[in-house]
Design a protein that fits this description.
Helix content: 25-40%
CATH topology: Rossmann fold
Number of strands: 7
CATH architecture: 3-Layer(aba) Sandwich
CATH class: Alpha Beta
Order of helices and strands: HHHEHEHEEHEHEE
Strand content: 15-25%
Structural class: alpha/beta
Largest sheet: 7 strands, mixed
Distance between the termini: 34 Å
Length: 210
């Protein structure tokens, strides 16, 4: 089963749970929205580095792995344009229904490796609880290259990376990186590392500038 097929299957089964499993399989829309707003406020609005570098009202934001728009809804309140992408067409269709009426949101299904956007198009790229599910390094690395391409000069990519070794055959499993192996990749692509921050025992945040 491809990663696209897997996420379409999970979306059909219980999209809210597989996007945010913290509340169990019975998570309702209210809890789902609350979690999206909380995470947006924590990881975007509460990010001193991003807030010091950008005026959000003037920025185009790319959210990689937007799912059904859990955080996208709240991003749209602050950014000029929000582009949400996801490997799952079913997730994107649900997001379109949930976020109908938000005129500054564009939602795009991708192949998981490339971004259907022009060069030098976005100011900030953001991805949370997405890259740690990617099953092979080629997909991770292709996404990093694509983000570099679509970012404007001095644009920033904030992304959470898996560091613990897990079974990639589990639905939630994905490939792991160390700070050293990730550092090699970002140098090869051309990013400058602005900041790195450990996240619990399973990963680390990166802030990368083009």
């Amino acid at each position: 089963m491809s990663q696209k097929q897997l996420w379409d299957k999970l979306a059909k089964e219980n999209s809210r749970y597989y996007i945010n499993s913290d509340y169990g399989r019975s998570i309702d829309e209210e809890k789902f929205r609350e979690s999206g707003e909380r995470d947006y406020m924590t990881y975007m609005v509460g990010d001193g580095l991003l807030m010091s570098k950008f005026d959000l009202k003037e920025c185009t934001l790319l959210e990689i792995g937007c799912g059904t728009g859990r955080m996208t809804e709240f991003m749209a309140q602050d950014f000029s344009l929000v582009i949400g992408t996801d490997i799952s067409g079913r997730m994107i269709r649900e997001a379109m229904e949930r976020l109908e009426g938000l005129v500054n949101v564009e939602l795009l299904e991708t192949d998981g490796d490339s971004l259907p956007l022009p060069d030098d198009f976005v100011d900030i790229a953001f991805s949370y609880l997405v890259f740690q599910h990617m099953k092979d390094r080629e997909m991770v690395e292709n996404n990093f290259k694509e983000v570099y391409r679509v970012l404007r000069k001095k644009g920033v990519f904030k992304v959470l990376i898996r560091s613990d070794k897990v079974d990639v055959n589990k639905w939630w499993g994905g490939v792991d990186y160390t700070e050293q192996t990730m550092g090699k990749l970002i140098r090869e692509i051309g990013f400058d590392l602005l900041k790195i921050e450990k996240r619990d025992e399973f990963g680390f945040w990166l802030w990368l500038e083009k």
